[in-house]
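Following up on my earlier message about MRU. Here are the inputs again, as you asked, copied directly from the submission form:
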Amino acid sequence: MEVKAFVWKGDRLLLLDQRKLPKTELWLELRTDEEVAKAIKDMAVRGAPAIGCVAAYGFVLGVKAGKDPREVYETLKNTRPTAYNLFWALGRVMKALEEGKDPEQEAIRIEKEDYEANRRMGKLGSELIPPRPRVLTHCNTGALATAGWGTALGVIRSLKEEGKEPFVWVDETRPYLQGSRLTAWELLKEGIPHKIVTDSTAGFLMKRGAVDAVIVGADRISARGDVANKIGTYSLALLARAHNIPFYVVAPTSTIDPSTERGEDIPIEERPEEEVKLCGGCEVAPKDSPALHLAFDVTPAELITAIITERGVFKPSEILRALSRNSP
Ligand code: MRU
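Thanks, got it. Here's what our run produced:
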């Protein structure tokens, strides 16, 4: 059965608690915008497109409860600063309301469009990649991170669907382990061959000639084509360049932030140091050692081979063209 990260029920939002995976499949029932905001902040739901969809439904819950829409908007906005899809989706539902349209219908449309964008990106991406590829991916960009199918993982699923037999190296992705906990879980369900590796294994795998392409998602793409994504992505891009391996970013146009010119200007979320010092609830560092937890980094456009969107495949420096092109 198709993996879903969230299900809208009209008066409540069901959310698969991703902090508990892969051990437990626990569904949360959220009834207020504050509960939705907390679930986003605490990463019960994560992944830029999924955050956007869920925030839009959170807005609907707040408005239906008769709250001031500006306050609801602010509550949901102040959760995670890097994922552009959050601000984009909230902007859409707010605009719908201001124009006298139904924000609930708009939120449902956002979810539907995201799923369709993922299917389209999957197709475009799988056309680019030769058969039997050994791809390396970072973080989780699958059905759990989106309205369904996935971005980078969606391309991998489309490769499988088209009989191209992908093999996936799954970066475990410290400290949240989105790779080993979530991506591996999805790949297993899909029957896609894979192996989990520690983040520091990537370079040596490339040196050994075991990686044909790196495919990742994005949290925000600047106007000049720099890409913010899960911490560790920049290192992978440098390694891919050093080993002459293509480095693809897969993201819907809702991730493109035309008002931020350069990657340096993208806000980077800093999360609590405890998340680095604990692993699965176990202490893995001395209590008194300080730690730095940057959740994202920025890969400069120059290191990216191409950005795959639902509106076509673009050179990073030409990514703004995607915003003026119509969806096929
Ligand atoms: O901190 P997370 O788990 O929300 O980070 C997610 C990522 O970095 C993903 O690569 C990105 O959001 C794209 S998901 C389709």
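One observation from looking it over: The CA atoms of residues 225 and 317 lie 5 Å apart. Hope that helps, and feel free to reply on this thread.
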